[in-house]
């Protein structure tokens, strides 16, 4: 078969902003050894665990504040059983709820219960409405309560139109007051107005909240110290992973020699970082990042380089999933196909027998708009429905909103024992999408917007004490 050469549709994407930065990067030396930090973190984890042993003596309000702090500080993964048990008792009414609770606590309870799979009726907000069904005007002077209500409303499920009104009401007043408030509440409002808390990457919230939590009156010093230690230890491990992945990608990208494709090793790892957070998810994070790499190369091949015949042959080769299928491919795709098979064999080798899947599933990634690139979803909608760009964007936003509500509903209906981890990965994928494609931009292809986030996540100093 003749080798296919670059055609008129080839696109010169922006080069990588990182080059070998994370390959050669050496983090600043910490004043504390890793061994000391791990030992101290374990001591603090035990202290926090003892807090849950005293839940019978705590109010529901205090429990909600504790669980919320654990989540936003990024240390809730150490207490999943305790958190679930506590929220279950709150949901069943075993722990008494005062009817006079402030809006912040009622909304916080609603959000936390729904985030953990417990359905709560929207009727809990009726006590904050007047006789005409409108929210009491006094709430417009309660930024903390409005922010909690705003975030809670984004746990809506299909058919809960009443929460559309909640979002509109809270958003209007938060927008109006944000310029007159001080940090940290002003910063938290601005973040939520961009991306609501339930849809924001937890790791990014932790990065901000560690600093903000210290400014809160009555913050728990034990939680704060543990969060800082956990953040530093996790980031240290992830920087090592990132270096390893970048070395793998550099070698892989060179060997497959698809020079028309995006060189986005760091951004690929960011996807894995978003979907599988935490130090204990290293294996899943690396596997997912490599799958993103394979999809990215295939996407660029289909979108910007391959002929129709090349695309059909690559599709057939993937269906056959055998090295003998290289014979039907053009020369320039043979190494990519061979390496793809090798990657999935590697995944099989490192997974436990019960974790393996035998039928590889490679899904074409979202198209990306660039010069000479294929049509984006926006273009397709405009062409199909004869709408303007503004109308198409609004329609697609409505589709995304409905998809989020279906995700929320599904999470409250799943078998927790069987599917919780998978469901969280799906939610984290959607959260990562919100960040990467924020404002309708594509920060994976055009990486300037993502560069600042990556710098903050992996390079910004976080003091242990």
Could you characterize the architecture of this molecule?
The chain is mostly helical. The chain folds into 2 domains: 34-226, Glycosyltransferase (Alpha/alpha barrel); 227-459, Orthogonal Bundle (Farnesyl Diphosphate Synthase), CATH 1.10.600.10. It has helices spanning 21-24, 34-52, 60-72, 80-92, 103-115, 143-153, 162-177, 185-194, 202-214, 221-256, 265-275, 282-305, 308-320, 331-350, 377-385, 389-411, 416-436, 448-459. α6 packs parallel to α8 and α10 crosses α12 (282-305). The longest helix has 36 residues, at 221-256. Pfam families: Terpene_synth, Terpene_synth_C. Residues 17-193 form the Terpene synthase N-terminal domain. InterPro entries: Isoprenoid_synthase_dom_sf (IPR008949), Terpene_synth_N (IPR001906), Terpene_synth_N_sf (IPR036965), Terpene_synthase-like (IPR050148), Terpene_synthase_metal-bd (IPR005630), Terpenoid_cyclase/PrenylTrfase (IPR008930).
